[in-house]
Design goal:
The complex is a heterodimer of chains A (about 200) and B (about 110). By secondary structure, chain A is mainly α. Chain A is about 70% helix and about 0% strand. Chain A contains seven helices and one strand; from the N terminus they run E-H-H-H-H-H-H-H. In chain A, helix 1 packs parallel to helix 3. The N and C termini of chain A lie far apart (about 55 Å). Chain B is rod-shaped and about 110 Å long. With about 110 residues, chain B is mainly alpha-helical. Classes of the chains: A mainly alpha (about 200), B mainly alpha (about 110). At the A-B interface, strand 1, helix 1, helix 2, helix 4 and helix 5 of A face helix 1, helix 2 and strand 1 of B.
Chain lengths: ~200, ~110
């Protein structure tokens, strides 16, 4: 029986796609915003936008669309943060005289002997150390370089797809990727790691 | 100095990192996915006259086919009766204007020529 509804990506297909992409999307957002809750919010927003606006697209189109939405959502966060920090700076400059009396030194006291953050149980493992180092170096990369590097080499998008997802030219993608690779290699080599 | 990085090795490491996410994070991602799927857009091929019941057998629609026909019939009946009332009113109005003109001796020449 013909139903008047055409679903190019079925609910199951979309679910499988999101299940496969959500972890990497979360890590990408986390590298960008460095806050777990915000990263989760960004991924949730991106998933919702994809399902609402492009839920009827074919399965092959979903990876590109999702990456585009994810990167735009991350950029939107940056913009909002910029505006917020501008207002915070403005307001704090107006109220700074009153805040000094309310400062509690215990809030910022460093407790060196009793470190509340437990060490990773597998910190002795080379793989875990390498993971932490690479993630830290990725976080240090400029946003556009990190974006290009992750899309190109982690998401396996080609140069044209990466350019489309980032909203820039293929030449820019190549430049960003080259610089990111160079910076990462130099940083890892400085720590005695050669990949 | 020329630096080079094995990107496939980095990919492998990043994949292992993504596989080690905390259970509470995975739970939140699962919830986010479910929420997104509830809002999945579907493509509706609804023709212009779908409201008349010709939407390719979409029988699950709350607006059933007989109901649409009744509404359409009522609409047409209203149009016909409206047109009829307006025609009667306009005719009566014309006659009464001529009557008044005759009574007040204001009949224009062209009315007498008819």
């Amino acid at each position: 029986m013909h139903s008047g509804v055409t679903k190019l990506a079925s609910r199951n297909e979309l679910s499988e796609f999101l299940a496969a992409a959500e972890r990497r999307a979360y890590k990408q957002a986390l590298f960008a915003v460095r806050d777990e809750h915000i990263a989760l919010d960004i991924v949730q927003d991106a998933m919702l936008k994809l399902a609402e606006k492009y839920g009827d697209k074919s399965l092959s189109e979903l990876p590109m669309l999702f990456q585009r939405i994810l990167q735009n959502t991350i950029r939107d966060f940056y913009r909002r943060q910029k505006v917020r920090s501008m207002w915070t700076t403005l307001m704090s400059s107006l109220t700074s005289q009153h805040d000094d009396s309310e400062h509690d030194p215990l809030d910022t006291l460093q407790d060196g002997d009793n470190n509340s953050q437990s060490p990773r149980p597998d910190s002795s493992l080379e793989q875990s150390q390498l993971l932490v180092i690479i993630e830290n170096e990725l976080i240090k990369l400029p946003a556009r370089q990190r974006e290009a590097f992750l899309l190109r080499y982690w998401e396996d998008l080609n140069t044209a797809e990466t350019a489309a997802a980032m909203g820039c030219s293929e030449g820019s993608v190549k430049t960003h990727c080259s610089r990111a690779t160079h910076t990462l290699a130099a940083a890892l080599l400085a720590q005695g790691i050669k990949l | 100095m020329k630096y080079d990085t094995n990107t496939s090795k980095i990919k492998e490491i990043l994949n292992s990192s993504a596989a080690q996410l905390a259970p509470h994070t995975l739970e939140k991602l699962r919830n986010a996915r479910s929420r997104a799927l509830e809002h999945q857009r579907t493509r509706h091929n609804v023709p212009v006259f779908a409201w008349l019941g010709h939407n390719n057998g979409n029988e699950s629609s709350p607006i059933s086919r007989p109901y649409n026909w009744i509404v359409a019939a009522l609409f047409i009946a209203c149009l016909i009766s409206g047109a009829s009332i307006w025609h009667n009113y306009a005719t009566e109005h014309d006659i009464s204007e001529v009557d008044i003109a005759i009574l007040t001796d204001d009949v224009p020449l062209h009315a007498l020529l008819d």
